[in-house]
Amino acid sequence: MQIWLVFLAPALALAALYALGLSIPVPHFGRDYVVRFLLPQAGDPVDLPTIYGPEDRSRPLVVIDAGHGGKDPGASGTGLREKTIVLGLARALRDKLVEEGGIRVALTREDDIFLVLGERPEIARRMDADLFISIHADSAGEEQGVSGASIYTLSSEASSEAAARFAERENSADEINGVTLDAQAGRVNDILVELSQRRVQENSAEFAGLIVREGQGRLRFHPQARRSAALAVLRAPDVPAVLYESGYITNPQDAQRLASEEGRARFAEVMARAIRIYFARQSGG
Fold this sequence. Notes:
Blueprint: H1 2-19, E1 61-66, E2 76-77, E3 80-81, H2 82-100, E4 104-107, H3 119-126, E5 131-138, E6 149-154, H4 161-171, E7 175-176, E8 179-180, H5 188-191, H6 198-215, E9 221-229, E10 241-248, H7 252-259, H8 261-282
Helix pairs in contact: 2-8, 6-8, 7-8
């Protein structure tokens, strides 16, 4: 009876209105209103972020990923949240690259939205990016005095126990109450494809080294600045990629540096220089 009532209730309601001489106003298509919607330009990517910089598609494209976002705040400490800190750094780097010209740049997110881990490298792959940079900020937990930035590249085995713990924490960003949103999140090792993309991994390592070199004396690095782990966000098999761990948000000095305009500008200058040197090497210039 309940199922029948679900189906019959609308019909009975309309019949009652009709019997009472009442009617429901329904617009006449093409007479009472006009529907307008924008069509994408031919050749424009669909559901992909805006590309800033030169329109020349032969110019290299950098996709910058601000970690976490939306329902996932990331690490927190000293009154700050990781998702806010890293978005500020990503925007600063984008603006610096656009200001200097010659390089196209896109952000996986430009505001406080949530992206599944698998979407982030997939955006870079679909846009045929030449470089993918994911920006994060770590938490030291109860440890005191831990500070400094580090750069991760993809590896089937973690470079240290700390790197393994970090990868486990970051790879769980797609879980809600223990349920994984992205069915592919547990297939990081499969996507390594027996390291057949060895050249891509070599390029990633080269870029990571450039960040450390150009940042000496300008940025504060962790004593173990170069690390590797099976990070899901770096799994695009055909795009050189690094995860830049900008510092520890639980460390007051790191947090103040990352949240300040001066700190963002210094990060952007170093990273932009490393990017330009990397592309100059790739082109043989």
